[in-house]
Amino acid sequence: MAPPTYDDDDFVDQYDDLEEEEELSPEDKIAMQNGTAEVRKALGVEAGKVTVAQIQEALWHYYYDVDKSVAYLTKTFIAPAPKPAAKPAPKKAPEGKPGAFSLPANQALFLRTFGEDDESLGHNAYSTTICDIHRLACAFPSIEKPQLSLTFFDDMPWLDIPRDRETVFIEPPRPRGGLMGGSGAAPKVSKLQALAALRKKKNEEKKAQEKAIPLESEVTKLSISDTNKENIGPISKLKDQSSQHNSTVASTLQAQEGETTSDNTGNSLGEDASLPTITEYKPDADIKFEEAKPVVGHSHAPSAFARTLFGSVPEAGETRRRDVFAMPYTQSSSFLADAFSEPSPDDIVLAARAKAGKKAPAAAAKAPKKSQKSEEASKEASLASSVSSLKVSDAPPPKSKGLDVLKEFEQSASKKNVSFVVVGHVDAGKSTLMGRLLLELKLVEERTVDKYRRQAEKAGKQSFALAWVMDQRSEERDRGVTIDIATNHFETESTKFTILDAPGHRDFVPNMIAGASQADFAILVIDANTGAYEKGLKGQTREHVLLLRSLGVQRLIVAVNKLDMVGWSQDRFKEISEEVSGFLTGLGFQEKFVTFIPISGLNGDNIVKRTEDAAGAWYKGPTLIEGLEASGPSTVRSFKKPFRMAISEIFRSQQGTTTLAGRIDSGTIQVGDALLVQPSGESAYIKSIMLDTEAKDWAVAGQNVSVALTNIDPIHIKIGDIICHTTDPIDIGDTFTMKAMAFEHLLPMPVDLHRGRLHAAGQIQSIAALLDKATGEVIKKKPKVVQPGGVARVLIKLEAKVPLEPGQRVVIRSGGETIAAGLLE
Amino acid sequence: MADRRRVNGPGGSSLPPIYDDGELDAVSRRQRAPDAIRPLYLKTGVTPSASGSAYLEIEPREGEYGSGMKLTCTVHGPRSLPRSAPFSPYMVLSTHVKFAPFATKQRKGYLRDSSEKDLSTHLETALRGALIADRWPKSGVDVVVTIIEGESTRQDAVERRVEEWDVMNVLGGCITVASAAIADAGIDCVDTVSGGVAALVAGKDGDETSIVLDPVALEHESILAACCVAYLPNRDEITNLWFKGRLPSAASYNHQSLVSRAVQASKGTHGLISASLSEVIGNSQN
């Protein structure tokens, strides 16, 4: 043994070994030689890996035990373990001393009684014996301890413990689990458990086969087997004892046994054996022992309570109960047991639909590839295509018909579609005029107007009855003013009209702007009453006209209203006409596009029918309705431009569709188009288009339509937003340069920008230049202020990004007044 | 304060009155030999939800009320200790002994009273000696013993104030049933601990003293002293010893004799536990 590192102890050991070797006796030498030869033989091929000295050393240490030496050498030199644990014990302990057993006295007695005549019992009996005696007690390993001799562990090698000395661990038999009072049957084993058990068993069998032969040889050769047998002897006796104990044995033996046990008990408890009480009670103890030991048999039958608790369950398990009770209707001849075992037709359709809904696009895309691969795929593709034709209405996106909208529009010999806005100073009679117009055209029933009249009388506003046709809101009716745009439709023989009744009150000018931006032309209503007209001209008549002009409305019908109040005075009409036309031409309206009509909105003169009042007979011109029909759209409709539509109203309807109303500013749309809502940037599909009250597949610029969108959350849409095609989206920005005509003094100041319904707060950043009104040339760079009537190029920065494009007309307001109108550049 | 939340039964079970002239008649006297213990019925694995459980029944005398006993024990665990518990290198054993409210003539409360807590402590001591607690570090085991039917169901048990002696029998039963339940749970033990009771009883005149195993207080004129042991037969060790009463100075008995008799009784009980458990094992092996 040559340890790799030399410390003092190792040196000494080695020295000692050498000394001992020198003293080898002749017998030892012979044994050594034989042993060496045997070991070499046993090692076989591996013998070359160890030296003779190593073999001899091993033999010396193992007292010429060839097997152990071989095992040691194999472990240490041929297939070395990480580190040799320790030296084996140098000397073998003397054979087990007699009386060294730590057995209880009664067992020792049996040892003496029976002697050692039963050594034929094999080692294998060892474990089984114990198990038989203490079948249960095996679960408590410490029980076995006292039955091993003290010398058992002497000369036990550290490594490579002989098989027969290894502890046999017997798995404690687990009490059966299971349900309350379960039957006597073994618990059920799951499939997995069964598999694991089988595998384990196989492995064990394999191992056993491998080891069986060497083990046996080892056991037979074992030199220390004597001590083992001595150990086992008494235990095997114990078995005999127990069997004898159960059977009827000679009474003397029994008496002896009883006595010893009682003695033992007394001693173990430290009782003084000399006390007379013990002798007195000894017979008792004897009887007790004989009776108490087999108390096992005294276990009584369970009480009724316990039987109820535990007994009934297995019984219930055994008796087969009918699981199913037939219902009475099963007796009927028309009863089919499997009528509902298959999915219903509805289920099949639903399943197919669900499948198609999920897979249709993917399957369709992959179809060409897949069809080559498998029939299944092609089946799927065909299914997808067939299902896509019966698409659920709300499945995105709605299919576009791919119409040429312009062609359709030209082919559809429909009437002209014109919208006009009614403007004028507050209380000029705009709403009343429109109410009268609708009434005359039989679009509003007389009965309704009568009802309004009664209600208005009650409210003390008799003259407002007709206005209530247009002003539906309670707030408007209470205040007697129009607040928001009221939209209505009527049609004549040649034209479809959309009325946009604008509010005249100065507080609601933004709403008027919204209305005016949707209009092709305008009706300017002027109160002919003395004072009212003058007031109007200073007030909203003027502002509205300015706004109309700046919003690009060129055609104007001036309805001089309430002429009945001034007795159909021609002079008054003339005066007003001249004054207003002068004002309008000053603003840039062309005279041919301006028509003056004297009317009475309240009475309905010169609206549809000519006045019957003799005083008004001087008027030979057209009635209002004739004037309206004569007025075409003032601007060329921009059909070919990209689609733009300002949202003026939003209706939220059921299941994911959102309906928007507005006038198409430019371009065309059709059902199925993909749209973009700006500034939110959300996309949507057109599900349907409603023109007035009829569904259409398409719509063109100038029409007031309702568009139902799918695939969009209504929170992304708000009034004033612009919708456009995704292919040609409108830009959004917050900084704009514009050519503005000032109505008031313009300074770098906070302003509101209006375009239709869209309005955004912002600021005039700078005024770039003052321009010439006619030519548009720069007069002055960077002016400090723009005078009223002046035209300037200004830079406006808004607080939020809005969808605006160059060429659009906007209105700039500040502090509730219109201060400028402009064109975006 | 009375428990008003539950619908309580009557204060005690109603049994037909027994008119007693104050003297024990021959029938109610002890019929067994002084060293015989009453037959038991023990069954393990009765509660499916518990790790281990056992049911113990001590047979009442035929046609008689009140000398039998029914106990059930559930063992929960070993399971990990709650986070709040401090680290323990050993298995933490906690025992609860509870009389069912209807178990005795004098109705028991829902909360454990002092005598039940006392029994719990005794039981814990008895079991702790048998368990190999260091094999289960950081874990706890709960042993819950419920006495379904106590011995003192008879009215005269209350009148004669023998409950204090019956507690001994109850403890013996608790130890036995808990031991079986722990074995059922598969918790490592050095041995199955078993309980045994012995008592020094006096005769009619108070002079014929004798030691009896497994005493039933009602069957004797008076009990002078009683002893309950928890005993490990394979180790010859006593894990818990409860001695009650006073030995008459003149008597020729000493404490050790009473203890040794109690040990004999527990040996008898142990044989029963072994038989019951091996029966279960036999069933499971078949």
Question: Could you describe the 3D structure shown?
Answer:
Chain A: This is Elongation factor 1 alpha-like protein. Chain A: Belongs to the TRAFAC class translation factor GTPase superfamily. Classic translation factor GTPase family. EF-Tu/EF-1A subfamily. Chain A: Pfam families: GTP-eEF1A_C, GTP_EFTU, GTP_EFTU_D2, HBS1_N. The complex is a heterodimer of chains A (825) and B (286). Helix content of chain A is 38%, strand content 19%. Chain B has one domain: 2-Layer Sandwich (Ribosomal Protein S5, domain 2), CATH 3.30.230. Chain B contains four helices and nine strands, in the order ββββαβααββββα. In chain B, strand 4, helix 1 and strand 5 form a beta-alpha-beta unit. Chain B is globular, with a radius of gyration of 19 Å. Chain B starts with 39 loop residues before the first strand and ends with a helix. The chains are: A alpha+beta (825), B alpha+beta (286). Chains A and B meet through helix 9, helix 10 and helix 11 of A and strand 1, strand 2 and helix 4 of B.
